[in-house]
Amino acid sequence: xxHFSWVDGSIVGLYLFATMTVGIVVRKHVAKVEHxxxxxxxxxxxxxxxxxxxxxxGIVTCMYTAQNGYEKGFAGGIPGICQAVAMFFIGLTGxxxxxxxxxxxxxxxxMFDRRFGPRIRWWAGVVIVLGGLLNMGVFLRTGGEFLVLVxxxxxxxxxxxxxxxxxxxxxxxxxxxxxxVLITDFLQFVVMSAGxxxxxxxxxxxxGWDKLTTTVEAHYGAGxxxxxxxxxxxxxxxxxxxxxxxxxxxxxxxxxxxxxxxKDSMTxxxxxxxxxxxxxCRFMIPGVWGIAALAxxxxxxxxxxxxxxxxxxxxxxxxxxxxxxxxxxxxxxDMSTDSSYMLTWGSVIYNDILAPFRKNWSERRGLxxxxxxxxxxxxxxxxxxxWYPLKGDLWxxxxxxxxxxxxxxxxxxxxxxxxxxxxSWGAAAAIICxxxxxICYLIFEQVPATKPLAGKIGPYYSGIATYLLVGAAMVIxxxxxxxxxxxxxxxx
Amino acid sequence: xxxxxxxYSTVTVYVAVQGSLDIRQMLRRLKQGEKDxx
Lengths: 492, 38
Fold this sequence. Notes:
- The structure holds two protein chains of two kinds.
- By secondary structure, chain A is mainly alpha-helical.
- Chain A is built from 22 helices and no strands.
- Chain A has one domain (6-390): Sodium/glucose cotransporter (Up-down Bundle).
- Mean pLDDT of chain A is 83; it is low at 486-492.
- Chain B has one helix at residues 2-37.
- Chain A binds chain B through residues 26, 29, 31, 35, 39-40, 42-50, 53, 179, 182-183, 186, 189-190, 193-194, 196-197, 200-201, 204, 209, 277-278, 280-281, 284-285, 288, and chain B through 1-2, 4-5, 7-9, 11-12, 14-16, 18-23, 25-27, 29-31, 33-34.
């Protein structure tokens, strides 16, 4: 029985009102497309840190990181460590992000146009949007499930909860674009952080660190602390996550958008180095919630969905009042993620996929089209989120769908920045391999005849192979292009 | 874990203060840019 009460409802209502008001009021500063997509490139370091942290922590993050803690103990935090290490070194060295920001582009495919030509730009845009929307497709359902479980509502209200969440976010994103997103992200970062700290403090005070560690020891032994000896993980899991998270830091549009919106490349690099450790917290804090759920509820029964363990635990553990702060914090987390991601994929559709069609468009028309695209994305998410049957754990689904574009875009970006012989043939080969392999894997998982094969290969070997094959495709494709064609930098 | 919590709490307060200053500056620069254009 949940402790969600009218006090909690009031806290949540107040928070939503404040966020919506701020998000809508700021729209008066949006006069052109550049303001809408990259906030006029006026974002400074600390706003960037808050926005990046808030964007990359949503209810979905909380659910899958807690699920990782519940199923794998402390070892489940390794993806966060991988991302922190990758982000820190990329920020420190400026690897790829310095030339990217210095080029003045608004999206990654725009950078590819200058080196590989407009066709590659277009196909890169399609792949990015495909991978990004498939990835984001589960956000709404997962967010709705969390709220329904924590608040104790009837599960029949899941679709209504999803629709209301999305409508609220869509309104200020459509009106204010990146400006609204940055400022609401900032507010959401503060509320979200307060909630995370408060709930974790209560868990440590009432359950205790000793009980958490002995629970992990009892259920998972050494594998609960060391990912290399965990039977569900091992080196393929760690290597896949290292590749995935490095790629995400370089080319996940929602992350790199903070670099592209920064005043200059040095500001973008500082945002990265100073936000890096946050990604350890991103896994560790909800991971501890998952371990607390394991300590309190015990292991899952056969067939039970482990994704629901943490919200079930919180619904009875937190007192009234604190429950409202948690729900506000999670709504904050989710709204910041949803708004950023809708804007991110919308910006790629407008800037890259529609590039061949938008000659001589006025700023007004550009703003109108951007807003229409975001509305359309919202409608897609609503329907896709209701229908796709999620198999396996959420982090793996996100990793596989993300790999559809991360593998090829990362290889293209590195080649674009640092390999003079890279050309459109290599880029095309990389894009085909990068999209094809994960899509085949997802299909194999669903079709009964190929399901055993998919199970045997596993998502980690499939993911690692994707990155390696995409790199090979770029090199081989580029070298195969006849020398006389290579002299043109504008592709085929 | 305690170190993580202390770090995170400290950073939240610091980013909250500095971030609010960033927002003011950003909006001021945008407004100035609009005025200059007119």
